[in-house]
Amino acid sequence: VDSSSTETVDPGPAAEAVLAASVVAASAEGASASPQPQGDADAPPSAEAAWERLQQLMSDVNVANASALLEEALKLRSGVAGSRKQPWKALPVLEALAGAVGNHAVPSDTSAAAMRELGHMHLRGEGVTADAAVAVRHYEHAAELGDTESQSILGVLHSTGFGAPRDAPLAATYMYFAAEGGDIHAQLAMGYRHLLGVAATKACHKSLLYYTPVAEKVVANAQRHQSGGTIEKVRLTVDNPKGVAKRSADDDVLQYYEHSALKGSVDAQLTLGHLHFHGARGLPADVAKAFGYYSKAAGAGEPSAFAQLGHMYANGLGVEQNNVTALEYFRKGAAKDHPASQNGLGYMFMHGYGVDRNYKKAAEYFKAAAERGNADAQFNLGAMHIGGMGLKKAYDKALHYFTLAAHQGHTLALYNLAQMHLNGLGAPRSCPVSVQFLKAVAERGPWGAQLEEAHAALQTSDAELPLQLYATLAEGGFELAQANVAFLLDQHYMHTPHTPLHGMVGEEIAARALHMYRLAAQQGNIEAELKLGDYKFYGYGTERDLEAAVSHYRAASEARSAHGMFNLAYMYAHGLGLTRDYHLAKRHYDVAMETAAEAWAPVQLAMLELYVLRWWEERTGGKLGDPYEYFGSFLGGASLEQLRTATAGLESDSLLILLLCVLLGIVLVLRQRQQLHTT
Prior knowledge:
The chain is an all-alpha fold and 679 residues long. Among the domains are: 24-181, Tetratricopeptide repeat domain (Serine Threonine Protein Phosphatase 5, Tetratricopeptide repeat, Alpha Horseshoe); 545-621, Serine Threonine Protein Phosphatase 5, Tetratricopeptide repeat (Alpha Horseshoe), CATH 1.25.40; 626-679, no CATH class. It has 34 helices and no strands. One of its GO terms (cellular component) is endoplasmic reticulum membrane. Keywords: Membrane, Transmembrane, Transmembrane helix. The chain crosses the membrane at residues 654-670.
């Protein structure tokens, strides 16, 4: 059972004052205040012509007012309520609504919403040719009318330069007004900026005010069991640059499970039940299908299915709510010592659903389930300890159980930990720790589904639209979005640096990638840390700085990255950014090989190079410098040019690597012969 206990922490009067101030309602003046649009906007049609056009459309669609007409346009554009997407039909309706701004019969928020939708369509190329400049003009008109979503989008575009001129002060202004008006993406962005001091003053108390209302929305949904389905989070990599391999693998897995379920496999039935219930691996959430699969598995006596069916009946999810039936399933599962079923029984006794309320029995069932690692039971025990429900009120024990549950990703436990650290309950008072927990909760909301939208756009378009979609979440502090933005920019820079991307070319693209890698690394992304080292080493988008490269490689190495260890060893071997030290180079190479088995081959080559470097220094006494430089200058002129031509432009490093490969091959052959001779 997903715990829906409302026994969250009472923060006390002081905290209540902070939390009450977290949602700042925009005043009539503040809601309409907004930065002035940049550039000339298209001249709107006359008010009389716009109204006549609107009346005709309302008559054609058979609706009574402009708000209802907007709803019809949204259905045409997005295909909501099961209808087919027809954005080209939505376009004239939205244009008419946008053109009727100022008409007494058309609410200003309706016109603003139409302008915003037109912005979306021009940005995404839905029913029209994609044109960021036109999209920006529509967003600017909507922002003038106080549309917070448009203000937030303009903040993202001006902050990143993806479709609008980069303008940090203007971006910050748009973000501020949008966040004050309650836009979730803007609140996330302002909370993140103040938490880590990104383009804003580092101020924990301000971050708290922005993250709290977003986190509270997530908590409210969790308590109502309205998760919105599992969000597929695809990380782009060199091996899978568009993230398509995962979806292909998902399809294969689903086919396997469906085939096995038809043949009576209980495990397959249970798995398909979970996938349909949570909406995972590309499947939409469908509690009716989940119920069918769980029922089949329960018929075979599967205790996990008992627990899931009990949960569905207890909370009325896809079935009519029935405490008696829920108790029946929970008892069947608990009889087999199944943790989720034990937690379900504890939940029923704690709240008195279908049975007399009995905190003692509830605690016994929760303890039994918690000892087997059930996160919901751990959370419920924490709630009982903090509320003194049948147990002694003990903040330290509550903190312990909430921490156990939070380690498994329990949303309500994360939120309660935030409140406890904020108010010093069972732990030292700490605003930064509290806000980190609130951030983790806030990022679990349905707005994170834009990750899926960006990934889908990447499959059907070039990088520009996915960048804009990922950028909204990247600005909001989503590390995965930051990493994916950096990756897309990096790939474009490495392969087609002279092809414009949102008006950027060459080093400007590299500089934006570097910025996003820095943000991702700041949140613990080790691959981003390595990339920062590479950018500093080669001078991509910045001046070459070997000491800074060493610092980034060292940070990655300390996080047990074999790649970071290898790069640091190379720097030691060549005296790049630090004093040459063959002993430390060998040590780091050895540790890299111990850390990752796949590092064996490159480490062997690097060790051969290390031996050559050491031999060279011993033979020359270090008087002739690095062998790369020495032989490069010795070949010089025409001889060096001929060699480069003959080797298709390979540099001296590449030539030595080829030589080392040959040497390594000889070593392996000799070793194999020796082993054969021994046997």
